[in-house]
Amino acid sequence: MPLSWLAEITDLPQGASGADVAASLVSVGLEEEDLHGGDLTGPLVVGRVLEVEETVQKNGKPIRYCVVDVGHHGQQVTEGKHQEIVCGATNFAVGDLVVVVLPGAVLPGGFAISARKTYGRMSNGMICAEDEIGLGHDHDGIIVLERLLGDKAAADLQPGDDAIALLGLADETLETNVTPDRGYCLSVRGLAREYWHSQGSPAGGYRDPAVVEVPAGNGGGHPVRLEDEAPIAGNAGCDRFVARVVRGIDPGRPTPAWMQKRLTQMGMRPISLAVDVTNYVMLAVGQPLHAYDLATLDGPIVVRRARPGETLTTLDDVARKLRPDDLLITDSGERPLAIAGVMGGASSEVGPATSDVLVEAAHFDPTTVARSSRRHRLVTEASKRFERGVDPGVTAAAAQLAVDLLVEHGGGTPDPGVTDIDHTTTRSAYRLDVTEPSRIVGVDYPRDRVVGILRDLGCVVEESGEGSDDRHVLVTPPSWRPDLDNDSPAPDYAEEVARIDGYHRIPSVTPTPSEGRGLTHGQKARRLVADSLAAAGYTEVLSYPFVAAEIADHFGLPADDERRLAVRVANPLSEERPLLRTTVLSSLVDVLRRNLARGHKDVALYEVGLVFRPGGPLERAPIPGVASRPDRASLEQLYAAVPDQPRRAAVVASGQIEQAGWWGPGRTADWSDMVAAVQTVAAALAVPVLVESDADHAPWHPGRCARITLTDGTLVGHAGELHPKALAALELPARTVAAEFDLDVLTAASEAPVQVRPFSTYPPALTDVALLVAGAVAAADVEAALRAGAGEALERIVLFDVYEGERIEPDHRSLAYRLTFRAPDRTLTTEEVNGFRDAAVAAAAEATGAVQR
Amino acid sequence: MSAPNSNYDPVEVSALDPANVDAALADALAAVAGATDLDDLKTVRIAHQGDKSPLALANREIGALPPTAKAEAGKRVGQARGKLGQAFAARQSVLEAERDERILVDERVDVSVPALRRRPGARHPIELTAQRLVDAFVGMGWEVAEGPELESEWLNFDALNLGPDHPARQMQDTFFLDPVDSGLVLRTQTSPVQIRTMLEQEPPIYIVAPGKVYRTDDLDATHTPVFHQIECLAIDKGLTMAHLRGALDAFVRIMFGPDTRTRVRANYFPFTEPSMETDFLCFVCHGAETWGTAEQCRTCGGSGWIELGGSGMVNRKVLRTCGIDPDVYSGFAFGLGIERALMLRHGVQGMHEMVEGDIRFSQQFGMGA
């Protein structure tokens, strides 16, 4: 919005800068997006071309050495002669009026102009193109003022006149970010109103540009029928349609320069008078308009929903398949002319020969327009405004403004017939408790303040009607505020009062919850797990959970593995990674690979996060209504449709887990580090776990994979070395080790308070046994048998040596255990201890075939 | 073993001669003093305190003395032996101390050599930042709520007053799942946790919900498709925007120091009404307006204020959808991006560092920065 335009509608304080206006608008909730223009300093003057000498350079480029009359400026003052300028453009002739920037000036972007030698001669400044002075985007040639302003306006100009004032280049343009509830601020009318509020809404300080004299509909206009047979949510697609006809427009008439400039400042490209006028009025009052070439229309305009199979080629030359939800403007109900509120069609477009124009100003249903805009991926200036809500009170005025401009600048004549179909309903008043804003905001607003602010906003506030009393007033919002709805208006009005009164007046009061139970067990347990792994030397990372479909094959998962059942993202960022991970490891390996690629040789990582386990194709989640709380069954159905997302942790290590140093060589991470990692976590949570080998769990090495379970057999996870094939497929180093476990299982298992076992203070008795077992026997089984056989007095059992080699039978191992016994009530005798030990050995022999050495 | 010598032996025993005793003692003391280490002292002890030592031999002669002489000789020898014993003990402790000290000197090592055999691990700072914020709120009596990341569309949008046609729904770029009509999305915000809580819990509710959220942004310096939010929701009787501001003030003080304060302005969010946008005083320049100067603050860009995020009073429609009577209860909600808080507080330059998982990033934070 150019400040000059703003100043036409509301009073700007003397010398208010763009930054000042932006700050004022921020105070009423309109955020500044950008501020541009106004960054040009002169001298920038009107010049008349006196002489042109054109030469062609070696590269084939023509160069003109020009002499330009710039009035009493530049070389005329210093050297007593006309300005000598070198110019690369050729779109001008001797006698033309041009825009000259003289040495000492600074152009937008900080380009300082000085006299300098170019193409062999001194150039004392520059003849400007539009884009160089921030006037537009055109750089096809330099500005010729007769063409830009018209011969009539140019006739009054003298060489040396200030071009900054002439072209309005000192004008700053402010871009604001308009939130979706404030559709009315997508217009200078709305922004000016907000600015006026920011200045305290002084009386007479706002001049509504939409207040113009408008003839009533009179039946003599172009026929229009509204035939919406499928309204969305009960709202008709179109509830107001104004059609006006202007005939005899001279197609050769250009859009006036001031209008072109404003369109350009607002980021729109001037096209032709009829189109520019509709855009200009839209920018001014927020009402999108459409101009049809009347000659292309055969019959009445019929507004209806699209029929199956219909198509329309829109102005952007795209043939669009229409869907029954699309609201159409049609010719005689047959030929589609436009997708209502989104974009017009090519066939009825205003062209270079158009002289009779039909101006459409309509009010379309926001939802209808939003859906069409989304479906056709077509966001236009019109759709943006209709989606956010256009003021239904401004329809006829907008059409009138356009008619007036076409008459004034196009030389057309308006038809006396005016079509105005108005199905809009008047909004009912809301009975507002004037203490409500204070109750919601926490600031004490006196009744007069509340009423005053609402009236400034354009609301009608009745203090004496039926239902009003000393605490209640009847409020009807203005037509441009559909967001002040009748559904829950009290907070809406409270916000308006707080906003206009100033958010800075809201005090700070710390809320005081009555009781809090602290972190849940699960939340504490999760921290403990993460801290334990970090303390054990693993570094926490967070990977994106998007994985490739091939990951399951890389892992070597069997065809029926549950981990193959992954959720697919319909619109993934990368087509190569469309799936959501079913294991943490499947995305953690990416981070390991990245670290290795960056030259880290020894890497030990972990991640704790959710995985996605749909267990099959996604069920369709219901979409209940929002008017009230869905019933229990609907909620349960809703929750159940959300796939399982267990929280899991994965650990991965490659290279040395203990560094080489003065103490000796380092130690490479191996399968046992991974088992230890899981055991460390389990121990931190005081959860006993069992370890057994698992020869069949991809992606682990079949001979080096531990399956870790709770004592009741519930699976916790797996740990060990990864399968060489998986490592090759994942492009990871040989011997990379990993673990993955279910945190939810460990959390649940640690939920119950630990029940303490009493312990003895009598002296312990230690005894060692060495057992010879066959190679296939698991140490864990031997230990379990020893425990079972040793009885109650066994306090501790440690496997302190494993030997296989020449001194024992081939394919056998010697396992050396230290058993610690202690009785609760006495010192054990040697005989007793020997008895326990023998019983333990016997049990081990029985269970595993172990032989004492 | 001999019986007392009943016969008087007139011969003077030279060993008991006082001069000889004194000489023996003097010799012994000199030897003790001359012992340079414990082994030396042991040799001296055998020579001067052993069975064959002069004083031991002298002592043995006492029994042969006439009774009248016994007492005096006994006293003389006893005193000498006592003095010698003390001297031994004293020398012994001196030499032991010397030895102990020497051992400690000999055992000296260079403690500046590396000691960590196992490289220390680290927590991820995003998790640590979330914990820090969560802990502060838990300390004020709030509780932590969580929910799934793959979430129902209804909970992520509709229940939050973001109907299928709501323009605000366009502002967010959502990951949809296959099939697209599944009614499921990757949650674009942690707000569905608020809905789940309100649906299942009676007010008063004071919850803080940290978690991962998803939007279809490509990774660049300021965007990442997977990021973290933390949201607070309070539902109680009599809550106003002043309480919201109080909670926001507490929030920024926790994160950025006790001098931090907020300023608020109007904004729009579909799930809150009235809504509020909050800035907080720059914790680096403390609000000095340095814009355009040589000392322009890099943290706040020179404005003196940093944008915190959106907040507001929970929309009555949202309360109704969750079965909470908006005429009895009111509440507020606010949230912010954890990555942003981390960037601000720790001078992180861009998103890449936070999402790539390079161990050099996490390791700077240890286990609880």
Summarize the structure.
With 853 residues, chain A is an alpha+beta fold. Chain A folds into six domains: 3-37 and 172-198, Phenylalanyl-tRNA Synthetase, Chain B, domain 1 (2-Layer Sandwich), CATH 3.30.56.10; 44-167, OB fold (Dihydrolipoamide Acetyltransferase, E2P) (Beta Barrel); 224-422, Phenylalanyl-tRNA Synthetase, Chain B, domain 3 (3-Layer(bba) Sandwich); 430-501, Phenylalanyl-tRNA Synthetase, Chain B, domain 1, CATH 3.30.56.10; 521-618 and 638-749, BirA Bifunctional Protein, domain 2, CATH 3.30.930; 765-852, Ferrodoxin-fold anticodon-binding domain (Alpha-Beta Plaits).
List keywords for this structure.
heterodimer, A: 853 residues, alpha+beta, OB fold (Dihydrolipoamide Acetyltransferase, E2P), Phenylalanyl-tRNA Synthetase, Chain B, domain 3, 6 domains, five-stranded antiparallel beta sheet, elongated, B: 369 residues, BirA Bifunctional Protein, domain 2, two-stranded antiparallel ribbon, 13 helices
Major sheet description of chain A: 7 strands, mixed
How many distinct beta strands of chain B? 9
Query: Whole-number radius of gyration of chain A?
Result: 41 Å
At the first level of CATH, what is the class of the largest domain in chain A? Alpha Beta
CATH topology of the largest domain in chain B: BirA Bifunctional Protein, domain 2
The CATH homologous superfamily name of the largest domain in chain B equals Bira Bifunctional Protein, Domain 2
Could you spell the SSE succession of chain B in H and E letters?
HHHHHEEHHEHEEHEEEHEHHH
From the spread of the alpha carbons, the general shape of chain A counts as elongated
CATH architecture of the largest domain in chain A: 2-Layer Sandwich
Intertermini distance of chain A? 95 Å
CATH superfamily of the largest domain in chain A: Bira Bifunctional Protein, Domain 2
Q: Note the quaternary state here.
A: heterodimer
